[in-house]
Each structure stands twice: as structure tokens, then as C-alpha cells.
């Protein structure tokens, strides 16, 4: 059962296409598995459509139609299905499928982050600068305490963790920013895999953690 959802303003921004590519990817991975949030996004999209219909018509530029038709005639990019071929190289726990939102993305193999902790860089098609990654943290392990210079969105794909504020399980979503200082700790029952997007920097408290975070690009 999904207990933690994106805030209404975040869902509205997602529906309006106002989020960065990285944040939009994490939002999409949550929405595809959450009936409640899918319904909210549908509502916001319908509201946006109704508002567009009420706008006063504007005269288009002379070449607007030609540009539109040219865009329609442009062949769509070749998309690799999630988990197929060499694209997503980080192996998931047995039986766990890749979110459909990651279609066309690529990832590195799991890389060492610390004892019992691994990470994988996720690259979005058309946006190499998006700071998106997977974390795979072993049972009972904890990330160093940290806060954020801007914002971080996290989607739990597998397992459970607690960070002093709440318990997050499969399908749950979390948004953090500079107002939150936490130390996510994986439950002893098993490992945890999360998809995260960071805007700005993760600000670790310890010097060693800051060094590792800089190497990873967090």
C-alpha cells in the first residue's frame, strides 16, 4: 500500500510540464504505479485543457503551420524498451521490473558507494545534465546524514527505509529540500532500491561523505 504521495503543487507542476526532466522522470515513475496520483494528474490535465479552450484566439505567425507540419513529419526517435539490451545495466532484485518511465534511459552498472551501498548513474535521452541515479542500500545500512541545497525527489522501487520522519516502502514517494536534515536507514528485513533526482547538491555533514558525494556527483 502506497502511503506517501507527491504534494498537490508538485502533481500540478508535473501535469503542466513545468518540472525539470530529472524530477519529471521520478514523478512519472511514481504516477505509473499509483492510481491515486494518476487520477489527480488526469484532473489537472483536464483543468488545463478547459482553461486553454477559454483563451482568446491569437493570430499565428505566417510560418507556424509549416513548422508544425515539419515537426509532425519528423521521424520519432528510436526508443529502447526498459530493461532491454545494454541500456539499463544496473541489475534489479529478481522479479522487480523497471518502471516504464525509464524507457529510453541508460544506466551504469552498480558502483561502490560505501560498505553495503551501491549507486548507478541514470542518463536521460536528450538531457545528459539531469542528475538522476539509482541507490541500492543493504539491509540495516544508512546513508550519511545530509540536507539539500535545492530539492531531491525519491521513488522507492524496492524495500523499506526510515529517515526519522516516516517509514517509506515500495511505491512511496519523498520530496526533500534544505528544510530537512535526515539520515535514511534501510530496515533490517532486506535491501532497498530507490530512484532519485537531485537539483542542486546533497549537503553531507561529514568530510568523508562530502568527498564521496562529490565523486558521485551528488
Description:
The chain has 218 residues and is of the alpha+beta class. 27% of the residues lie in helices and 27% in strands. It has five helices and twelve strands. It has helices at residues 8-15, 21-31, 35-53, 64-73, 207-216; strands at 106-107, 111-114, 117-124, 127-137, 146-148, 151-158, 161-162, 167-168, 173-177, 185-186, 192-199, 202-204. The strands form three sheets. Strands 1, 2, 3, 4, 6, 9 and 11 form a seven-stranded antiparallel sheet that branches. A three-stranded antiparallel sheet has the order 8-7-10, with no helix packed on it. The protein has a two-stranded antiparallel ribbon with strand order 5-12. Strand 7 (161-162) and strand 8 (167-168) form a beta hairpin. Helix 1 (8-15) packs across helix 3. The longest helix has 19 residues, at 35-53. It is globular and about 60 Å long. The two termini are 30 Å apart. 30% of the residues are buried.
Describe the protein's topology.
Layout (H helix, E strand, L loop, with lengths): L7 H8 L5 H11 L3 H19 L10 H10 L32 E2 L3 E4 L2 E8 L2 E11 L8 E3 L2 E8 L2 E2 L4 E2 L4 E5 L7 E2 L5 E8 L2 E3 L2 H10 L2
Antiparallel strand pairs: 1-3, 2-3, 3-4, 4-11, 5-12, 6-9, 6-11, 7-8, 7-10
Helix pairs in contact: 1-3
Amino acid at each position: 500500500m502506497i502511503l506517501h504521495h507527491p504534494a498537490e503543487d508538485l502533481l500540478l507542476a508535473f501535469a503542466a510540464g513545468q518540472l525539470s526532466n530529472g524530477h519529471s522522470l521520478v514523478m512519472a515513475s511514481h504516477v505509473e504505479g499509483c492510481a491515486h496520483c494518476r487520477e489527480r494528474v488526469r484532473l489537472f490535465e483536464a483543468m488545463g485543457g478547459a482553461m486553454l479552450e477559454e483563451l482568446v484566439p491569437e493570430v499565428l505567425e505566417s510560418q507556424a503551420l509549416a513548422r508544425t507540419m515539419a515537426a509532425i513529419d519528423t521521424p520519432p526517435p528510436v526508443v529502447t524498451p526498459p530493461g532491454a539490451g545494454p541500456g539499463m545495466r544496473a541489475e534489479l532484485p529478481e522479479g522487480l521490473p523497471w518502471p516504464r518511465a525509464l524507457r529510453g534511459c541508460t544506466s551504469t552498472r552498480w558502483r561502490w558507494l560505501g560498505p553495503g551501498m551501491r549507486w548507478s548513474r541514470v542518463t536521460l535521452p536528450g538531457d545528459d545534465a539531469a542528475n538522476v541515479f539509482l541507490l541500492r542500500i543493504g539491509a540495516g545500512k544508512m546513508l550519511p546524514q545530509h540536507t539539500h541545497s535545492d530539492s531531491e525527489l525519491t521513488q522507492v522501487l524496492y524495500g523499506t527505509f526510515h529517515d526519522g520522519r516516516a517509514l517509506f516502502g515500495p511505491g512511496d514517494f519523498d520530496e526533500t529540500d534544505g528544510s530537512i536534515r535526515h539520515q535514511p536507514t534501510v530496515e533490517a528485513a532486506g535491501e532497498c532500491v530507490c530512484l532519485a533526482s537531485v537539483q542542486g547538491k546533497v549537503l553531507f555533514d561529514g568530510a568523508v561523505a562530502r568527498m564521496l558525494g562529490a565523486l558521485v556527483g551528488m
